[in-house]
């Protein structure tokens, strides 16, 4: 399957990781080694949900890094509509530029959660909040590097894995080998489809570096964000060592039935379905999140 993708593992982007301990999320600055061009993957807005307070310490850290290193931000990539943290992409875009992109199935997610949150017709469900809606196999440039988007649904319908040279940004398609995989029980999720998407990622060259979106340090080990296709194929506890689709679906479905909703799912969805913007202010200029009762 790799021959349909422009994988060039001789291109090795410089990847700098930023960690948000509240949501265990990794954000990345992915830099072209031969120019100042970079992309920012999956940024995080800070929220104190109990207080209804948002801030931008983590985003400011990335902005400072970009400015200190004179980087030219060409892209802001969201691997998917996250349910466990809020994106800071528009905040970062305003300060340092770049085009904001997500998978084209964002429209499916917007339709679903537009209903859940009873958004009126003023909430556009056509993905127009983003600058670019990626389709399967789309390529784009970051300086001299060619990147491509691989549609990897299952966790959510809009999940994309972005491959930039020898580096794959898998979103929640895979976790570290000892973490397995992400849940597939959100609306539009599907364990079998997730298995197929994981196989697609594992069809990349063995030496491809895989950068995680999350890690929870299972069994008390330190937080880790980087593995490889080879390591995932051999050791992933949910799909490695030749586990079958049936085995995976059974395991994933049983496990998902026991999981609580992510703590930040309610504000996360309302922000992330809007490409990282807050819900529109009321006529007093005040902003509110909604809490739908018995809808999630
Ligand atoms: Fe996610």
UniProtKB/TrEMBL annotation:
Kinase listed as a keyword: no
A Pfam entry, by short name: Lactamase_B
Metallo-beta-lactamase domain segment(s): 24-214
Segment forming the signal sequence: none
Keyword line: Metal-binding
Superkingdom classification of source: Bacteria
Keyword Manganese set for record: no
InterPro entries in the record: Metallo-B-lactamas, Mito_Persulfide_Diox, POD-like_MBL-fold
Protein name as annotated: MBL fold metallo-hydrolase
Species classification: Bacteria, Pseudomonadati, Pseudomonadota, Alphaproteobacteria, Rhodobacterales
């Amino acid at each position: 399957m790799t021959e349909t993708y422009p994988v060039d593992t001789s291109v090795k982007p410089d990847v700098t990781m930023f960690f948000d301990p509240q949501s265990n999320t990794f954000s990345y600055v992915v830099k072209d080694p031969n120019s100042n061009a970079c992309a920012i993957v999956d940024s995080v807005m800070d929220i104190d949900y109990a207080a209804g307070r948002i801030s931008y310490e983590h985003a400011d850290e990335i902005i400072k890094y970009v400015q200190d290193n004179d980087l030219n931000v060409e892209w802001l990539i969201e691997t998917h509509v996250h349910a466990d943290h809020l994106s800071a992409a528009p905040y970062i875009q305003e300060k340092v530029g770049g085009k904001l992109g997500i998978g084209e199935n964002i429209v499916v997610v917007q339709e679903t959660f537009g209903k859940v949150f009873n958004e009126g017709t003023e909430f556009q469900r056509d993905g127009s909040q983003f600058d670019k809606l990626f389709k399967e196999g789309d390529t784009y440039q970051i300086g001299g590097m060619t990147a491509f988007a691989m549609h990897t649904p299952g966790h959510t319908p809009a999940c994309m894995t972005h491959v930039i040279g020898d580096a794959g940004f898998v979103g929640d398609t895979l976790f570290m080998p000892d973490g397995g995989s992400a849940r597939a029980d959100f609306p539009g999720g599907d364990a079998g489809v997730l298995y197929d998407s994981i196989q697609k990622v594992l069809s990349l060259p063995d030496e491809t570096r895989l950068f995680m979106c999350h890690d929870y340090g299972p069994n008390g080990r330190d937080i880790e964000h980087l593995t490889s296709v080879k390591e995932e194929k051999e050791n992933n506890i949910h799909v490695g060592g030749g586990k079958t689709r049936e085995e995976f679906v059974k395991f994933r479905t049983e496990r998902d039935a026991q999981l609580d909703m992510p703590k930040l799912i309610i504000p996360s969805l309302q922000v992330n379905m809007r490409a990282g913007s807050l819900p529109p202010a009321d006529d007093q200029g005040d902003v509110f999140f909604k809490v739908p009762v018995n809808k999630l």
